[in-house]
## 1
Amino acid sequence: MADIDILVLYYSTHGSTETMAKKIARGVEEIDGVQARLRTVPKVSPQTEASEPAVPEQGAPYAVPADLVECEGLIMGSPTHFGNMASPLKYFLDSTSGEWMGGRLIGKPAAVFTATGSHHGGQEATLLTMMVPLLHHGMMLLGLPYSERALMETTTGGSPYGASHTSSSRDNVLSDHESELCRALGRRVAATALKLKG
Ligand SMILES: Cc1cc2nc3c(=O)[nH]c(=O)nc-3n(C[C@H](O)[C@H](O)[C@H](O)COP(=O)(O)O)c2cc1C
């Protein structure tokens, strides 16, 4: 079967969402024939395009809208900022009206993940609202099923709406349950994309 890519697209200021993205990418690549394409987005400022180099000095490359089209699925992550996705990710999504007009993402599987500073700081609100622009794009949203034991057992992050992490200690270490659910989300989107590709 032909190899396919899944775009793992994230923004992270302090590294916890990035840690999740890497774990999710591992889950994606546990499915034979699927690679993870890890991409981030730059911070926004009044001079975004002028002030950022095209390629960051370290870490994942910056995403371009073509990544969304070339990949067979999307797993998108953001820190929770005031109960919502962070503006750099929204800024990137707002540059994809051409892809929306062309219907280029219709029918592709997608999933979301987030990190918060506090346990009840809005993970589920962020996950649900991150899905909205992806639904506008016609993507097919996937969550995590309760057949994942970690979802029932977790006392840290993890939600049927997507992977999540509570970063109160600021050490960017995921709990075992958070880590398992990140990998499960990666595997689920990868396996679904492969099936849809036929
Ligand atoms: C502007 C801003 C708003 C935030 N809002 C929330 C919030 O609503 N709830 C919460 O629990 N944490 C909030 N945080 C904390 C971050 O979600 C948390 O530190 C997260 O782990 C950061 O992810 P990162 O390490 O990938 O940058 C906020 C942080 C910033 C900078």
Note: DSSP finds eight helices and seven strands in the chain.
## 2
Amino acid sequence: MDLTTCPQCGNAAEITSRDVLESTDGPIEHAKVVCVSQHWFVLPVASLAAPLRHPTRPQTPAI
Ligand SMILES: [Zn+2]
């Protein structure tokens, strides 16, 4: 599952499909993005936000 950030509300959003659409500059890969708040967008892949990253850093007790 590919995750990104909703351009409208900033919540997590899922990339549900990808398609190559023709444009004046040649074919551009677009992705359909559906957010947890049910916003959806078709955006060029290059304009998608980077996936949310939650680094799992183990908490070491300070003893
Ligand atoms: Zn949203």
Note: Residues 2-47 form one domain.
